[in-house]
Amino acid sequence: MTIAVIGTGMVGGTLGTRWAQAGHTVLFGVRNPESDKVREVVAGAGSNARAVTVADAARLAETVVLATPWSATRDAVTTCGDLDGKILVDCTNPLKPKLEGLELGTTTSGAEVVADWASGARVVKAFNTTGFGNMANPIYDGRATMMPICGDDTDAKGKVLELARDLGFDVIDAGPLTAARYLEPVAMFWIHLAYAAGMGRDFALRIERR
């Protein structure tokens, strides 16, 4: 699969690198493909990755992954251009400044807002409920940690489920896109434990089945 990863921060860089190493073609969509930071990320991702502009990445890829801060997400969607029919994976969380909570919730979600911005895109919420370290390695004591995913388009969601399995997650189909109203607070809970509760980032959530 050809995947456009919009953003080369810790989440985007980690996801793109893992998928490139798994054999996917990864296009990092960035403002300046020639910057030193971007060159470093691409070099670490290997020969299956390269950096291009945001618009070119979105145009050339089957799947577009938003790995941007919430404050930059609407601009990223606009810069991507026509996303009609594309799988658009929303990894973002509508966080308030200083991680003080969520800007949205209860009656809507960041994912649903993204779907409004990206008219015609097949939006799937994924990779938002844990830290980048767990995206690099989701295995604890030989067991996979969870990755809940939701979306309204069955085919698009199925492909994103496979992308999560490529990373080693225990994948959970959480239902329609409105379930992002629950997944984004899960992300806030993880952030609260990692920072406010002092647990650090080396932990993950897991589903136990009887």
Protein model, in words:
The structure is a single chain. The protein has helices at 10-21, 36-45, 54-60, 70-80, 110-117, 132-136, 154-167, 180-196, and strands at residues 2-6, 25-30, 49-53, 63-66, 87-90, 122-125, 139-140, 143-144, 146-151, 170-173. The protein has an eight-stranded mixed beta sheet, sandwiched between helices. The protein has a two-stranded antiparallel ribbon with strand order 7-8. The longest helix has 17 residues, at 180-196. It is of the alpha/beta class. The chain contains eight helices and ten strands. 40% of the residues lie in helices and 20% in strands. 45% of the residues are buried.
Summarize the structure.
With about 210 residues, this protein is an alpha/beta fold.
Secondary structure elements and pairings:
Elements: E1 2-6, H1 10-21, E2 25-30, H2 36-45, E3 49-53, H3 54-60, E4 63-66, H4 70-80, E5 87-90, H5 110-117, E6 122-125, H6 132-136, E7 139-140, E8 143-144, E9 146-151, H7 154-167, E10 170-173, H8 180-196
Parallel strand pairs: 1-2, 1-4, 2-3, 4-5, 5-6, 9-10
Antiparallel strand pairs: 6-9, 7-8
Helix pairs in contact: 1-2
